[in-house]
Amino acid sequence: MRRDEAEALDGADPLARFVDAFVVADPHLIYFDGNSLGRLPRRTVAALEQVLVDGWGGELVRGWSSWIDLPVEVGDLIGSTLLGAAPGQVVACDSTTVNLYKLAAAALDARPGRGVIVTDEANFPTDRYVMAGLAAARGVHVRLLPTDPMTGPTAAEVHAVANGDAALITFSQVDYRSGAIADVAAITRAAHDAGALVLWDLSHAAGSVPVELDRWGVDLAVGCSYKFLNGGPGAPAWLYVAGALQDSLVPPVWGWFGQADQFAMGPAYRPAAGVRRWLAGTPSVLGLVAVREGVTMLAEAGMDAVRAKGMALTGLAAELSARWLEPLGVRSGSPPAAERRGSHLALRHPEAYRLSVALAAEADVVPDFRAPDVLRVGLAPLSTRFTEVWDGFDRLRRLLEQEAWRRYDPVPTRVT
Amino acid sequence: MRRDEAEALDGADPLARFVDAFVVADPHLIYFDGNSLGRLPRRTVAALEQVLVDGWGGELVRGWSSWIDLPVEVGDLIGSTLLGAAPGQVVACDSTTVNLYKLAAAALDARPGRGVIVTDEANFPTDRYVMAGLAAARGVHVRLLPTDPMTGPTAAEVHAVANGDAALITFSQVDYRSGAIADVAAITRAAHDAGALVLWDLSHAAGSVPVELDRWGVDLAVGCSYKFLNGGPGAPAWLYVAGALQDSLVPPVWGWFGQADQFAMGPAYRPAAGVRRWLAGTPSVLGLVAVREGVTMLAEAGMDAVRAKGMALTGLAAELSARWLEPLGVRSGSPPAAERRGSHLALRHPEAYRLSVALAAEADVVPDFRAPDVLRVGLAPLSTRFTEVWDGFDRLRRLLEQEAWRRYDPVPTRVT
Fold first, then answer.
1. How many domains does chain A have?
2. Is A130 at the interface with chain B, CB within 8 A?
3. A266 touches chain B (CB under 8 A)
4. Residues A247 and A393 grouped into a single domain
5. Smallest CA–CA distance from A40 into chain B, residue
6. Higher pLDDT, residue B200 or A409
7. ipTM of this complex prediction, to 2 decimal places
């Protein structure tokens, strides 16, 4: 496969103009980690300067007359653009971790007498930790499914383990290592058959793969905004609560931004109607503005086109990996069909950690390492060229041929 | 009292140069709400541009090698500059509301069998709501002291009500309406006498009045960063956990940023040593940088000088109020002695709401209204001139003389 084939793909890319809509400080750098921290959109630089200087600097506290609605406005934008969610069900706030906690705690409250949370061993660490913490506090049990990361959790597995004791079933739609896409609709039905509520983490899915929360009957969902949403490091996360559940679920954190009449500052907490009750403290205005800009770009591109390009990018990467890298000891850690995986690819190699260091140090390629043996290649559709994939894999091939990883220390033992 | 007396105070002000260190979009505007949202420091504009363009834009995900320590670094800066806290006890993260929840939940866990949380009716709404929510979830009781807002809670009141059933005693050091300063040391001793843990909300105190958390033996504290710390709208808050308690308290939210070995992403949550375990999800990098800049200014000014100027500012305001406004129907809602109040003053008037609207609409003065009858005048020491106080009170006097508030609607009934 020659480089001009990748050039031809760039030439035919209907989303090519979006690549130039991001800040690129070093054109030689290959960025394969847009699924860990998405690039900085140029429009975000301008929008942040405006909210900083005109908003905070100029309007001062009066800015809150419009900022107060940002969590709901940005939530609705995320919902309509990325989640298949009608207005009034998504709010942007807090971190994914805190949102997982809030929703899972409320779900357990709504299923008293049921003693089990179901998730899978391959789920993202913070998801598993939050569930373990809630389980410890309430004397319930976390059932960790030994799901195959190459397929993700399945409805059959849920049917097999979930019965009358399951209060909450929670998974990630896209596996953070393998990229495998779970069948959200089928698993949600299986959870409901068992009488449980379902909570989906869409951190690696939103902005990358099709999501239809309303149509699939999902109860609860969360996700971050710093990956494919390009909201920046530590951007506010978001949460989804299906309209039908909103009156019956009560957040564990009773905060003034979730109070029905916030500025009456009255004696008793009364949760706001709708999704606003899931706000807790004062939301980050700068963070919300950055998320708004990033999601607006995805809205302009259209998720159908974004998904098509994402599949084409991982398709090219998988093909290059099979031809060039697998003869050099790399194994695929992702589903073989593009429609069964998100916008990232796992390359497995026993020296993946040292390879990731060598790539950054010697080849100006930034991938991600995920323990124990995954070199993760994230290909954000809006900001990645096909030639960038070709060049990155070409550099990786050379390093593998030279066994360049031998020059670097093995994984250090981290002691925190 | 003539304006040239205020001009003389400005001329002798050792912190005068800091006023010019803030962005001032409209020199005619009188800003009496720096205790609700502090002004934008010029240095913050530059620092945010750098972390945005060079950091997020240029370093991309590699920026996390330094950003990962920001919550602790900024926490230590807050601790040493504003709180009298040795390193390793403060972390900047989440919102004040979420931090209140995390600390109060852990405190209740640490006092099993005790069924009461003590706070006061005048405490800030989100504090009361968080405690009510935790109490409802755990079947414990919130005892709301009918504290006199002109004095704040007292050790005698705590002695009178707290006995073996109190798990947690929580107040604000500076009352958000009256500005009254509580005797933190004495109340903390009274709480400890009763075997309870104590949690202080320093949102209106940090950066405004002397705080000595270590010397006073305080267990737990929280505060926001968008008032006197000038961290911006929705800036990350902070929390303090005394070193002696750190090994025994476990956060309710088990998040990956609070995990001992975060990037091993192992099967079980093991809380990090020290204060880092109180992190939950991914912290806001832009927000933390802004907080760092604001607190650095307070460090440069020195809290002794900041406190002295704050007392002088509220002293001038109280004097002008007594001479000019009280004959026109205003009553003081703050302690008469400057050393007994923070850097804000409560002016009580039956039409305070309409007055606040008239001030903004007709006189370019931005105060804060706090239900039911408080016009709150916040005088941030770093960004407020004595002549600004004089001019603002002069404009308020004229509006009162004209009964300008009659031209505006009464408090609207807000229905959310």
1. 2
2. yes
3. yes
4. no
5. B57
6. B200
7. 0.97
